[in-house]
Structure to design on (815 residues):
């Protein structure tokens, strides 16, 4: 009886994303065994790299009991900076640094408002998101966006062996984040706040500062994601699917990171891979864009339900 | 002459997750009596009463009410059968009026099918005045004081024509005047040949108002005796299974150490009398008195968790003016070597789902800058587990897998690992079994002997008397008097509090 309890509890600790990925892999293998090779799967994985990078920030924020809904706005703003033509003359490294600092500042602003001013994270980051979107529309002033410098495109299409460079970049970044969380004092702070913010406070954890830092890193990750996204489409765009932010939350939750669990990187990482594989499976099944949207929505719903179940079993 | 018992519980057993909470417990309640149910935390008092109140169902045994075998599957059924309960956790709805609460679920309707508010309020007023209460039944419960809420709960039981009233720690939140009102109500109930079950840790109360005592220990009956036949000392021995004095380590003959903490002119409320307190090196000092008189606010002021109105504090020579700031309070004090151990270890102290190791070392981590590598502190963990004798198979175990006593030791260990010289501890042994209590007392005494200083508050006055060197009696938001613990008694403390 007790052992069964322990087993079921252990089973509940496995990130659901691992199971979903396994199911999807088996499905694909049965339907199209010829698709099961590194080059093809790598190309599919490349599509979700921006999402994957946003998730690296999102998981930090969510496990610090906050949330970041501003990634879409940051991506749009960075995309505008690169494609508007204003910075065509500038050295590419400088452009990249500028973009990263934009993300950093937005994240810092979010963090200060949420952590120090104790404003609602949902409202703050949503408002910041809307402001950024409005800002881009104002700056663009109705002009169609221009092209993205070639170097970005070239980097994006680079492959090492059969693996696309963005996928490797994402993997390395996830590794860095995992090490950062597991090895630094900051990681302990995040775990503590995720588990119990009041206890964290009484233990001397600088709760506000940790939340601010988590948001700042999340903003930075959004900017990195924006660079990859912009490289992938090679043109400016005035719209990015709002589903990116929702997907990032869903992947994080599917990855087993919910309020009150130690933040882990690989669960959400696999969660993002699930999204990639889902698109493959649906494409091979001939599902069109609307169908994919519905499937995405269902995953987010699933994640929400799962979150509810887990919070209950937690108490 | 035999009186038929109002309630007769026979061979009641209940198991939670493989652990027996009650084993063949008998309990009998006679009409017109005030029956104290005594026992350590975890002895099974609350479980037994929850069974009687229909909150939980027994695994075995039988309940007779007025001679009839009954089986309550819900609190509502128990209430309908005449068993009313006032639990520690309040069950009134704050956004409804007193009358609405009293008639919740059985609202009278007028002939038009609408709730008959006027009738409800009239009846409620009658019952309230029977209890000697001058409350307007239309008042929202949310606007009442804790004491008034408790009275309303009792009134609700009476409105349901209950003849058995269970009071679980009724005086925990009451001040002396309210306790008097409550006692008068209990007396009125017994005059009507109703029976009251009284659960309390306060000896004085038990001996003042109860007539019979049933003692439980580890889920079994120890004895059932009339109050007149027993003295407090014997009763404690019955509850803990040994003499209380054995629990406490001997005080050491110290020389007066230097003052490490002094509070001067602290005013907890704008018009409270200013209080001054000092703590010497190597001594354990208690803040005693009735509950809710300001002890908690006083210590929380020290770490910026309460905003007092003026005064100053000196910690090892560094002076601060009250009030201190929020987040800085805890961190600044920790840096100065003052550790604050919060009362509610589950809600404020521990990270229940995180490992023992994390819980022990988080204090050490929080001294460092975020980007520093987190060291494993293996030695600290091993030493703490050994010196505190924390019983756990491995440090990676989540703390919610540990017993209450071990959890409390982990919490203490966190602040000891910080090398704190001053510990402020709220409720050092709440929800901890007797064995662990004795261990914690010894730990604290050893800590003081090694040069540490401790301020303790506790609901259990006997604990404070046994553990500490010196007591400050707090009443009405200020320090009333100071006394050496050696010569202090519960009676003297109460006396000092009430006749200040």
């Amino acid at each position: 009886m007790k052992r069964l309890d322990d087993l079921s509890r252990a089973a509940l600790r496995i990130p659901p994303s691992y199971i979903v990925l396994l199911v999807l892999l088996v499905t694909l293998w049965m339907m199209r065994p010829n698709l099961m090779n590194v080059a093809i799967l790598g190309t599919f994985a490349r599509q979700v790299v921006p999402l994957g990078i946003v998730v690296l920030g999102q998981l930090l924020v969510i496990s610090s009991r906050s949330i970041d809904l501003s990634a879409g706005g940051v991506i749009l703003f960075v995309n505008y900076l690169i494609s508007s033509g204003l910075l065509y003359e500038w050295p590419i490294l400088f452009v990249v640094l500028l973009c990263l600092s934009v993300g950093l500042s937005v994240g810092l602003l979010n963090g200060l408002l949420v952590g120090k001013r104790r404003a609602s994270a949902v409202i703050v980051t949503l408002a910041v998101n809307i402001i950024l979107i409005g800002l881009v529309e104002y700056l663009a002033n109705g002009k169609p966006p221009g092209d993205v410098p070639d170097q970005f495109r070239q980097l994006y299409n680079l492959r090492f062996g059969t693996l696309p460079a963005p996928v490797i970049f994402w993997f390395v970044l996830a590794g860095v984040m995992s090490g950062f969380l597991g090895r630094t004092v900051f990681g302990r702070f995040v775990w503590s706040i995720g588990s119990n913010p009041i206890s964290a406070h009484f233990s001397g954890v600088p709760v506000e500062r940790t939340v601010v830092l988590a948001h700042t890193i999340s903003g930075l990750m959004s900017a990195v994601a924006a660079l990859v996204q912009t490289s992938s489409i090679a043109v400016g765009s005035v719209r990015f699917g709002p589903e990116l932010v929702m997907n990032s939350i869903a992947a994080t939750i599917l990855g087993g990171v919910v309020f009150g669990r130690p933040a882990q990187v690989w669960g959400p990482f696999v969660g993002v891979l699930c999204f990639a594989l889902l698109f493959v499976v649906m494409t091979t099944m001939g599902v069109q864009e609307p169908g994919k949207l519905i499937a995405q929505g269902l995953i987010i719903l699933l994640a929400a339900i799962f979150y509810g179940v887990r919070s209950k079993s937690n108490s | 002459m035999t009186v038929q018992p109002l309630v007769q519980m026979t061979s009641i057993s209940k198991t939670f997750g493989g652990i027996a909470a009650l084993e063949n417990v008998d309990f009998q309640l006679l009409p017109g009596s005030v029956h104290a149910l005594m026992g350590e935390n975890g002895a099974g008092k609350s479980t037994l009463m929850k069974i009687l109140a229909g909150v939980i169902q027994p695994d075995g045994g039988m309940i007779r009410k007025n001679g009839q075998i009954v089986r309550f599957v819900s609190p509502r059924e128990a209430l309908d059968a005449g068993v009313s309960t006032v639990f520690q956790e309040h069950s009134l709805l704050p956004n409804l009026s007193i009358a609405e609460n009293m008639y919740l679920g059985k609202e009278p309707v007028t002939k038009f099918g609408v709730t008959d508010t006027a009738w409800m309020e009239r009846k409620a007023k009658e019952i309230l005045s029977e209890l000697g209460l001058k409350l307007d039944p239309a008042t929202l419960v949310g606007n009442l004081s804790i004491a008034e809420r408790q009275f309303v709960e009792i009134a609700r039981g009476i409105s349901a024509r209950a003849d058995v009233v269970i009071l679980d720690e009724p005086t925990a939140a009451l001040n002396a005047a309210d306790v008097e009102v409550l006692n008068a109500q209990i007396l009125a109930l017994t005059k009507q040949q109703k029976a009251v079950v009284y659960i309390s840790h306060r000896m004085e109360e038990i001996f003042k108002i109860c007539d019979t005592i049933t003692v439980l220990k580890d889920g079994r009956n120890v004895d059932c005796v009339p109050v007149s036949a027993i003295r407090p000392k014997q009763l404690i021995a019955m509850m803990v299974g040994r003499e209380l004095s054995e629990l406490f380590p001997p005080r050491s003959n110290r020389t007066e150490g230097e003052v490490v903490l002094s509070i001067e002119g602290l005013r907890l409320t704008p018009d409270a009398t200013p209080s001054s307190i000092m703590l010497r090196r190597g001594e354990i000092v208690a803040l005693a008195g009735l509950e809710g008189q300001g002890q908690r606010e006083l210590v929380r002021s020290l770490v910026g968790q309460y905003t007092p109105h003026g005064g100053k504090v000196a910690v090892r020579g560094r002076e601060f003016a009250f009030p201190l700031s929020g987040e800085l309070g805890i961190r600044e004090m920790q840096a100065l070597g003052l550790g604050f151990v919060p009362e509610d270890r589950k809600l404020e102290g521990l990270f229940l789902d995180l490992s023992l190791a994390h819980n022990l070392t988080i204090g050490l981590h929080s001294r460092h800058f975020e980007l520093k590598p987190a060291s494993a502190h293996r030695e600290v963990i091993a030493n703490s587990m050994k010196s505190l004798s924390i019983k756990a198979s491995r440090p990676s175990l989540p703390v919610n897998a540990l017993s209450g006593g071990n959890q409390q030791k982990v919490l203490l260990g966190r602040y000891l690992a910080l090398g704190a010289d001053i510990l402020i501890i709220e409720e050092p042994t709440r929800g901890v079994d007797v064995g662990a209590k004795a261990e914690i007392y010894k730990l604290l005494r050893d800590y003081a002997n090694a040069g540490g200083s401790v301020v303790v508050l506790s609901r259990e006055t006997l604990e404070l008397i046994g553990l500490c060197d010196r007591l400050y009696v707090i009443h009405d938001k200020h320090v009333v008097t100071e006394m050496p613990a050696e010569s202090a008694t519960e009676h003297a403390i109460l006396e000092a509090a009430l006749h200040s």
